[in-house]
Amino acid sequence: MKRPDVLLSGKNVTKVFGYGKNKKTAVHDVSFDFHEGEIVSIVGESGSGKTTLAKMLLGLLSETSGEILYKGQPRSLKSHADRKKYWKDIQAIFQDPFSSFNVFYKVERLLRDCIKLQGLKLSEEKQLEMMKDACSFVNLKFEELHNKYPFELSGGQMQRLMIARIFMLHPKILIADEPTSMIDACSRSTILDMLLKLREANNMTIIFITHDVGLAYYVSDTIYIMEKGQFVESGPADEVILNPQHPYTKQLISDVPKIHEEWNLAI
Ligand SMILES: Nc1ncnc2c1ncn2[C@@H]1O[C@H](COP(=O)(O)OP(=O)(O)O)[C@@H](O)[C@H]1O
Ligand SMILES: [Mg+2]
């Protein structure tokens, strides 16, 4: 079988914050290839540079040096129109699903905006059908939620709505930065299963960022282990987890049996 095409890649990507004695290299000389339809996890402890890398991938932060290529080409993100075009293809969900939205907008508006964002001119009937489909994709009922405000939803419900939005926007790449770290263990496995379903439905490339190597093993094809801004080990999930080479990976994995116990209790 032909290996899927490389969609997003990085060559010696570095991000330095600040100057002089306040200088901090958050991401240090990382290179990577993320393929079409692949679920990649980036795993590392808090402060290892994961979110900084995610922001560079999204074009929210510029690289200090090195280069990020999309479909083999340097990205052009100078104008607003360029960025808008890029963000049709790459979207993100974050740790705190409430932070991304106007708290005064009801659920219906939040979903309807996805239709608007795509510039789709659809009949009211068709719009309702799309919103209902997106909700049922994440096991929510549009009729029960459409009139609610974000603060009336649980963290798990809100994160599922974020996934419903991604289902409607169907970007080529989704960056999920610690999407389960603020929700309870039970909703956590649901969210992970929905990420897997998204990939099934749209052949989406998913970049799953986590400090939890157990979760990474559960969802991903490929794992990159990040320590202090650098990738210290990467490869197919089975190889990295079952036959770790780097001491830092071994240290992360030593917590896994405990994680699995928690998981069995949670599921
Ligand atoms: N805007 C910023 N200015 C200065 N330092 C930053 C900034 N953003 C992140 N950092 C630093 O970069 C390092 C990596 O942070 P981050 O990418 O958020 O890590 P992670 O997401 O893995 O927890 C940390 O030491 C953090 O303090
Ligand atoms: Mg982070």
Please give a structural write-up:
There is one protein chain. The protein has a domain at 6-93 and 173-266: P-loop containing nucleotide triphosphate hydrolases (Rossmann fold, 3-Layer(aba) Sandwich), CATH 3.40.50. The two termini are 34 Å apart. The longest helix is centred in the C-terminal third of the chain and has 18 residues, at 185-202. It has 11 helices and 10 strands. The mean pLDDT is 92. By secondary structure, the chain is α/β, with parallel strands linked by helices. 42% of the residues lie in helices and 24% in strands. The strands form 2 sheets. Strands 6-7-8-3-9-10 form a 6-stranded mixed sheet, sandwiched between helices. A 4-stranded antiparallel sheet has the order 2-1-4-5, with helices on one face. It binds adenosine-5'-diphosphate (ADP) and magnesium ion (MG). Residues 17-18, 24, 26, 44, 46-52 line the site of adenosine-5'-diphosphate (ADP).
Rg from C-alpha positions? 19 Å
Number of strands: 10
Which structural class should the secondary elements be placed in?
Answer: alpha/beta
Instruction: Write down the overall geometry.
Output: globular
Indicate the CATH class of the domain at 6-93 and 173-266. Answer: Alpha Beta
Bound molecules: adenosine-5'-diphosphate, magnesium ion
- Major beta sheet, specifics? 6 strands, mixed
- The fold-level CATH name of the domain at 6-93 and 173-266 is Rossmann fold
* Poorly predicted residue ranges: none
CATH architecture group name of the domain at 6-93 and 173-266:
3-Layer(aba) Sandwich
Task: Find the CATH superfamily of the domain at 6-93 and 173-266.
Answer: P-loop containing nucleotide triphosphate hydrolases
As a percent range, the share of strand residues is 15-25%
N-to-C order of helices and strands: EEEHEEHEHHHHEHEHEEHHH
